Amino acid sequence: MDFLDRIEEIAELRRVLDSKKTAKFIVVFGRRRLGKSTLLKKILDKSDVYYMASDLVTNIQINMLQDQLAVKYPEIGRGEYQSWEDLLLVLNSLTKSKFTLCLDEFPYMVKHSPELPSLLQRLIDSKGLNYNLIICGSSQRMMQELVLSKAEPLYGRADAIINLQPIPPVWLQEALHLSGRETVEEYSVWGGVPRYWELREEYDNLMEAIAHTMLSTTAVLYDEPKRLFLDDMTATVQSESLMSVIASGANRISEIAARMGRDATALSAPIDRLIQMNYVRREIPFGENPKKSRKGIYRINDPLMDFYYTFIIPNMSFIGRGRKHFVTELIETKFTEYVARHWEHLCREAVSGNALFGKIWDEAGRWRGTVPLPEADKNGKKFREMELDVVAESIDRKALLVGECKWTNPEIAGVLIEKLMSKASLLPMAQNKEIIPVLFLKEPPKDNFDNTYILLPDDVIRLSHGD
What we know:
- There is one protein chain.
- The protein is of the alpha/beta class.
- Helix content is 45%, strand content 16%.
- Helix 9 packs across helix 16, helix 9 crosses helix 18 and helix 16 runs antiparallel to helix 18.
């Protein structure tokens, strides 16, 4: 698979490294499989030195880096170095023209040499460093603490900090040559992680790829979440339990606590940690204050993890018995419903901060509540429970977008728009605002309804890239 996206990250790295003035210090981090190492190798040239650390004792690591540096500076290979300070200071004295030293998987180095961040701080603060330095790591927790915690030696020293994020679905569509509908389905499984895309590319279809990469105890992604948690979590069992409970449909903190037999207050810190790692998100109803709202619900944010805890964890006993075909059929029966919830999220993301229908829209959210009726219905009720998939207010506060998401066979758009406008007319926040009714549909509608306010998968995928 070709190298994809990362246009802004490459531009930023090159901008900083191309400086002719002082040596630069750059920090790159992000979860495994996102292509950090590939990105770094993309911007390094033949004069630079790239070192991939391992979970080995300090002396062995020093010797391994020494061997790498000796290719560029043969003199450095003749010495015996007892510490990182000895090696890096000698390197500094030998450096006649500025180059870049990249230390990948830096957390492994710190694990066995806790003094290393303080050493780097002294080198950076001395203003005498003769080479650029990049540190990179997959442990988001440790990397964030090293550079974002005021108590840490490297705080405030970085000339650039790049927190690598998943790639938008438009690149998956390009990489695998997919239709819009196929892209939504595939993205709901693999998310924006390029390594997963590479694995998927080896198979003829989605279900075959799922079967071979996840549905056996020897499959490459069978234990993937556990491996990811080992990078960042001290209590992996608790993290896995939380993910399983959320995937099973317990989305409110009270429900999660009840399922786990724990007090809700004891779960706030571990859930917050999962949110920081982008594995979980908290969804706030439209119009609610995120800091004060008690109506927030929790969803698994990472598609592969959502798929794993929805389909793999509950069926591990069958997978262990080799019942791959049974589990595949089970996935197929529930797959449309599974994709539908990711479709909703993609639709809200497509609206948020984007220009659509002549307006720029603020953060989009789901809305659910009770609205008063103009007059009592046939059952004598004066109130109605109502839910809307997508609601967003324009930046100028003059318009309200209300949307419905459908991941089903072709619909009759005219009927859906009529129902949507009827719902919108009852919303208290819609008063004195222009209402923009939008349908987010899996397929073009059956009728010849004006498609101005109809968005299909290709439209949503394009908007997810900010176009």
